[in-house]
């Protein structure tokens, strides 16, 4: 009988937990900062507002913790996490580390460095746990929560007598809100920290709020009203993919933008067209891009702060589709290219 990979290569073995931590519920730790979730919940939208959005899919996906972060400082750099997933599912083309994993980064500001990723060790399991010993002298922690699963409970463990301190303030504390499709939500990044919104949050040292809803971000008037009431430093509109047709996109894109800017005329906006431009119906993709370009012109002609990111430039070149896992959803290379293309536009409007 063939040996398991864990026996052949010890680097694939699960972490052996040492214990010795006192655990507390995330929301009982006053100095810990949570971003991208409605206060006191693991929902990306106000749970009471969900029933007003005419999409049962969105009502479920709002409980996926895509883009949510937890930040704190821990004296000595030693702590542990225990997390219970809400759904415990799996996808055939997305790693479990991205779908239901939790990323650990250390350092602060623009120097944040990946340290570890904890994930369900067994197919179908909802249990995620791990222990962390940061490099000597490091105390700042950033956690990226799962992209395509939710969290029922998250506990942080610290050695006896150790309490977490507030993290270093971010350069941009008011969140940048991203609204978009499965790509925005993070499908199919290998880790939560590798979706493009998370990369941008570290590139620009800004809080972000990920409202990517896989297959269910369609620019409905009710969603436009919800977005327009959010307190944000900038808005990134990236739902091209979820519009069923170019005609539908034309019926919803400018009205959504108008609703938001009428209520928040000083809000900077970045409009993004689909990155897999050279996949599928190219003529249809041209029509979609033209529709979003007209929304951009409408905003600029009226004096709004607007930037346009042409998605056809993000996955360009002979390796364009190598940026995806299926011709559509980005892999880590694709998300890196998206972050590299969108971050400069966002930085311009933030500045």
Topology:
Layout: H1 5-8, E1 22-25, E2 33-35, H2 56-61, E3 69-73, E4 78-85, H3 96-100, E5 102-106, E6 113-118, E7 127-133, E8 140-144, E9 151-158, E10 172-180, H4 182-185, H5 196-203, E11 206-212, H6 221-228, E12 234-238, H7 246-263, E13 269-272, H8 282-301, E14 306-309, H9 332-350
Parallel strand pairs: 10-11, 10-12, 12-13, 13-14
Antiparallel strand pairs: 1-9, 2-3, 3-8, 4-7, 4-9, 5-6, 5-8
Q: What does this molecule look like?
A:
- By secondary structure, this protein is of the alpha/beta class.
- 26% of the residues lie in helices and 23% in strands.
- It is built from 9 helices and 14 strands.
- The protein has helices at 5-8, 56-61, 96-100, 182-185, 196-203, 221-228, 246-263, 282-301, 332-350; strands spanning 22-25, 33-35, 69-73, 78-85, 102-106, 113-118, 127-133, 140-144, 151-158, 172-180, 206-212, 234-238, 269-272, 306-309.
- A 5-stranded antiparallel beta sheet has the order 2-3-8-5-6. The protein has a 5-stranded parallel beta sheet with strand order 11-10-12-13-14, sandwiched between helices.
- Helix 7 links the parallel strand 12 (234-238) and strand 13.
- The longest helix has 20 residues, at 282-301.
Spatial order of the strands forming the largest sheet: 2-3-8-5-6
Class by SSE composition: alpha/beta
Oligomer: single chain
Radius of gyration: 20 Å
The geometry reads as globular
Number of strands: 14
Whole-number mean pLDDT: 95
């Amino acid at each position: 009988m063939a040996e398991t990979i864990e026996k052949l290569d010890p680097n694939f073995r699960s972490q052996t937990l040492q214990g010795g931590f006192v655990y507390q519920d995330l929301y009982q730790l006053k100095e810990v900062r949570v971003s991208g979730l409605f206060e006191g919940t693991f929902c990306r939208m106000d749970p009471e507002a969900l029933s007003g959005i005419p999409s049962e899919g969105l009502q479920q996906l709002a409980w996926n913790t895509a883009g949510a972060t937890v930040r704190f400082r821990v004296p000595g750099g030693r702590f542990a996490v225990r997390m219970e997933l809400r759904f415990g599912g799996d996808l055939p083309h997305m790693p479990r580390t991205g779908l239901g994993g939790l990323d650990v980064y250390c350092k602060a500001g623009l120097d944040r460095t990946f340290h570890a990723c904890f994930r369900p060790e067994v197919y179908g399991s909802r249990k995620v746990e791990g222990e962390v010993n940061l490099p000597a002298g490091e105390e700042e922690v950033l956690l990226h929560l799962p992209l395509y699963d939710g969290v029922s409970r998250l506990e942080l463990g610290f050695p006896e007598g150790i309490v977490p301190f507030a993290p270093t303030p971010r350069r941009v504390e008011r969140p940048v809100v991203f609204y978009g499709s499965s790509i925005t939500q993070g499908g199919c990044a290998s880790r939560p920290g590798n979706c493009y919104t998370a990369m941008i949050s570290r590139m620009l040292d800004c809080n972000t709020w990920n409202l990517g809803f896989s297959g269910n971000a369609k620019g409905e008037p009710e969603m436009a009203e919800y977005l327009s009431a959010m307190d944000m430093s900038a808005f990134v509109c990236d739902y091209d993919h979820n519009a069923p047709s170019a005609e539908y996109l034309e019926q919803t894109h400018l009205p959504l933008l108008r609703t938001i800017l009428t209520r928040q005329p000083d809000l900077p906006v970045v409009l993004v067209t689909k990155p897999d431009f050279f996949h599928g119906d190219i003529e249809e993709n041209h029509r979609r891009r033209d529709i979003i370009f007209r929304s951009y012109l409408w905003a600029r002609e009226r004096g709004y702060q607007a930037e346009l990111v042409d998605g056809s430039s993000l996955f360009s070149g002979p390796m364009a589709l190598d940026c995806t896992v299926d011709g559509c959803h980005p892999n880590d290379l694709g998300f890196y290219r998206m972050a590299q293309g969108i971050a400069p536009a966002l930085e311009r409007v933030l500045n």
